[in-house]
Amino acid sequence: MEWNRLISEERLGDKKLSSQASRSIFVQDHDRIIFSAPFRRLANKTQVQPLYEHDHVHHRLIHSIEVSSVGRSLAMRIGQWLVEQKLLNSGEEHNLANIVQAASVAHDIGNPPFGHSGEDAMGAWFAEQFAAGRGLAAEVEQDLRPEFTAFEGNAQGFRILTRLEMRRNDGGMRLSKATLGAFMKYPVTAKTRAAVKAAGAATYVGLKKFGVFSSEEALFEDVATTLGLPEEHIGEQKWWRRHPLVFVVEAADDICYNIVDIEDAFTTGELSYKEVVDILVRAAKPRDASAGDRSQAEHVAMLRAMAIGEAINNCVEAFKAHHQEIMAGTFSGALTEVCEMGPIFEDMRKLSSDHIFTARRKTELEISGRRIINNVMSGILPVFEDLAAVDWHAERLGSRSQQLVRALDLDLRNLSTPAEALHSLADYTSGMTDRYALRISKMLSGH
To answer: Where is the HD/PDEase domain (predicted)?
Structure first.
């Protein structure tokens, strides 16, 4: 791969727009994302800790802003090194930083309510529909069904950015292809990933999940072709190697959720002061680890900030060490795993797994969230079934369905197949905030 192609300013769906002296294409990308409705809704979506019980824990929007800050710092440092190595022109380090900032702020934009358990709940609901073999679900092609049963927030995010938001079905937000490339963690459809797995070749990190729905595959192919991402084939199907900046966005996410989840767990009482300080001191390597005259919360916050700084240093060095593999498309790890702090990050993940992800409050959220999502999707499905019955003419819907469309402000434009209808249902459900999902669930169930 070549850096001059990887940082292309060309926009998806709009080749005319160019950078301004005061505002680059990539800064415009960032601004389009943060002013969008899907981004605003992240303020009321669970990160890890259940919302509303404590004012000081992270939600998805704050997490996304923090990831973009760390990602910008990582990319700026890496960009400066690339300039020193004469792999980038002087000044282009700022482009790298702005691309990663934009991709990072968007990285969770497709996540449904109730955290990752919301993804599982949506996938399980779709699986039940396909198993029942009735209505719209029975008419969806077999090879498209994994897009629904393993519902993936990353693929939903790409769909929002490139199809749903702003210019619907005409490039979406029309972001730069560089930003879209840096966003795409898993450059493969569910159908192709299944074929690669069946062939026993799914060892590459970009194949861990699928990251693009079949409905948007052509859009990503456009992005990948412009950027020069290496293309792989399995029969007549194709997938791509990751954009190098994906590893930077992923590292920023890993740094934030590992370290900040630990701080949140102290705030909520799931980890003791000593447990949190011990792991953060190992990560931060401070010259003086004592609290001094700080409160416990202030001490933890100071160590958290220092730990993030140390993690940035480590991941920059890891990117340098693996740059050749990354550019060849053969690197298949994570910067937080291969860096010097890798064992500490692993201990953080274990601490979270043992004490945070199994906490009673989080488990209660997951149980109630699953029921809420089931209520919402089961309550809205009849509208799409009715729409199919009237040959996709929304104006011919029955009075009950029309009432639901008005009450829920459902968008029924451009639907003509069962798969499109189920994607539209997923668009609506995954776009909900935790609060709104609860309200709609109550309305649909009558209590």
So the answer is: 56-267
Q: What is the pLDDT of residue 231?
A: 96
367 assigned to some structural domain: yes
Distance CA 404, CA 424 (A): 15
55 CB burial (10 A radius; 0-12, 13-18, 19+)? exposed
The pTM assigned to this predicted structure is: 0.94
Domain encompassing residue 391: 360-445
Residue 273 resides in a domain? no
pLDDT tens for residues 133-154?
999 999 999 999 999 999 999 9
> Residue 436 domain-assigned?
yes
Tell me: the pLDDT tens digits for 43-60?
A: 888 754 444 455 556 688
Chain mean pLDDT for the chain: 93
